[in-house]
Each structure stands twice: as structure tokens, then as C-alpha cells.
Amino acid sequence: MSQQLINHSPDLKHLRDEGYEIEVKGGYLLIHHIPYVNSSKEIKFGTLISELTLSSNTRTSPPSTHVINFMGEHPCNKDGKIITQIQHGSPNQMLFDGVTINHSFSNKPAAGYTDYYHKVSNYANIISAPAKSLDSKVTEKTFKVISDEDDESVFQYLDTNSSRANVNQINAKLKGQKIAIIGLGGTGAYILDLVAKTPVQEIHLYDGDVFLQHNAFRSPGAVSEKQLNRKTKKVKYYSSIYSKMHKNIIPHSCHVVEGNVNELDSMSYVFICVDKNSVRNFLMGHLLKVGIPFIDVGLGVNTVDDSLIGTVRVTAGTSLKNDHLSNRIGAEDSDENEYSTNIQIADLNSLNATLAVIKWKKMSTFYQDLEQEHHCTYSINVAQLTNEDLTT
User: Fold this and answer.
1) What superfamily in CATH does domain 175-390 come from?
2) How do residues 316-365 score in pLDDT, each as one tens digit?
3) I need a surface site. Which of 74, 173, 273, 297 has the fewest CB within 10 A?
4) pTM to 2 decimals?
5) Distance CA 49, CA 72 (A)
6) What DSSP string describes 45-99?
7) Are 319 and 291 in contact (CB under 8 A)?
């Protein structure tokens, strides 16, 4: 993937052809072996690290910022004094294993940088000039080709959003997880939309139903009439959509029942997105028995005075905290809630999914979790978010 990007982007290819040791990793452009002088007047070698803005998987766009980062000591003039003309910050921020931003530099041409060759070569010239004045043999242009590492990314293309936000190291907390989403109605589909944008290892979809016309009005995206007429299974439809982004979307065109529930035993987390309490309790009982954490979602909608009122609910359960479940999840199925009569609203489904995914990310320490609530509700008519069943 990285070499394809370099080969098809004239600016990156220009850098490589001139001998720069360039590498695309984790959504960043790395330029290795940049000579510089440190405060002790010694010649050292560091790495320039730039954000990488792409127009496609094989072409760059102009840089989104003139700032560039550096791994190494702060570059100095040959007298050992810091090059103040580019001095910007010293965050000492780890991006991912083996790569840390020690310093950031700022040097902006009047018209900005036209491409990455312009940006990289300008900073490389400024930083390396003192080292070259001390030793004319040192160079950043080694013509060393850095081979792609084994492509272990779960994405079909580079995640440049995480690199722009500098959250790669935090995002890595989700790597390796196997996620199951049981039920691809409105809320489950929105959960898939959000989880597919994370680096989890696998996303397993369980639903035995067909994607019908009413589903189109409470699900993410827009489906064509031609697609609806095919009466495709939900898991097949959604896996075909999200596999364009995430490599490991695994469809299971069935409901989870006694005969296949053991398939959940290898999961890291399970999202339960069903509308029957009997199914919820069956799934929760099994997951608690095998020690798999889960998040159950639900929304209740009723008509009052020609308006809709209701509550969006997210309930989490783990082997350490589950004594609240019997108070939050009914034991019997009920038809009293208008949710069971297909009153589902896309905005409520998407909110339900968002709250559930945020809770999962808290449980994965992606987000800080000071409350550690295991039951969260949003009441529509009073716009109130309530956290209960906290970990004591």
C-alpha cells in the first residue's frame, strides 16, 4: 500500500528518487537519516515526521499544515545553539511503537507548501546545513529504500484521520479486538458504521433477516430501489458496504440461538441490539458465564399529545459488574412499548449507537471514564442524560 502511494504521487516519488529515506507509516510520512548538529556540536541523525493528506489511496494532496515534526534532539547551528528560526514546540509525544515526536518546527513560505517534496526538502535543507558545514560528506540522500512492513492494517486504505489528530497510540488500544454485533436493525447498523472506522481485528455481524424498505429509513447511508428489490440479507448488504473500508467484516446470516451461541466465546466485546427481552436475557446469561463483556441497547418511544416521547438506553455488563442487570432488563417480552411496533427514528437509533460505542471505547480505555456507569439513559423530552449503576 505504501509503495503504491509513493509510486503514484509525484512529490513522494520525487523525494525517493532524489535519495531521501521516506516511509509511509500509520498515516504519517517519515523521512529518516536527516543529519543535524546537537547542542554538543555533534553530528546526529533524526527523522522528520509529517502529517499526510491524501486525495485518494494513491495520491497526495497539498500538505494541510506547514508544521513538521522531528524525532531526535533539537537541531542546532554549528556553534551548538538552537536553530530558532524553526523552533515551535517540544511535545515528546509517542505516535506508535518506535516513533516519538520530540520536537515540532514551523517555517512557512509566503504561499505555503505546494506539495510534500517542497515541504520536506525545505526543512531538510535548514536542519542539515550546519552538519554539512562541519562535514561535507554527510547527507540525507542515502538512496536507501525502506521496504513496506507486512501490511497488517485492517483498513483498505490509510487511516490519515487518526494521524491528523495524533491519536494513533490511543487508537491502538482497540487493535486485536473481535467485536460481535447481534442485530442489524437501526441501532445495530449505526454501531457497525462507527466500529468499522476503528482498527479492531474483526467485526462479526449476526442477523437472519432481509434488508427491507422500512430498514432504509432508519439505517446509515442511502440504499437504491434496485438494491431493495434484491431482498438481500442484512448481514450481506452491510458487509458489502463496510468491507470497502474494513477488511474483516464477517457476516453470519442467522440469529444467535442455543446451537451457535458458543461462537461468541472468542469475542472481545458483544453489542446486543435486539428487541426481545427473552433473547437479551439468553445472550447476557451466556456471555456472563463465559466472561465476555457486552453492551445492550434499547429505546422506548410513546405518543403523548401528538408528539413522541421516550428514552434511549445503554446498559453494560461484565463479569465484575452485573448485579444491576435484572433491574434494567425485563424478564418478559412486552408489546406495550411502541418500539415493538416499528416506531424507530433514525436520529434516536444513531444516538443509541453513539452512546453504546462511546461506552465500549471507555471500557477499552480509549476515552477516560471517571463515572464507570453501567446504565445510561437519555430522556428525550427533558434532554436529560442520566448515569447509574456506577462501579463502586
Assistant:
1) NAD(P)-binding Rossmann-like Domain (3.40.50.720)
2) 999 999 999 999 998 777 655 443 445 678 999 999 999 999 999 999 99
3) 173
4) 0.78
5) 11
6) EEEEEEE--EEETTEE-S-S-S-EEEESSPPB-TTS-B-TTSEEE---EEEETTE
7) yes
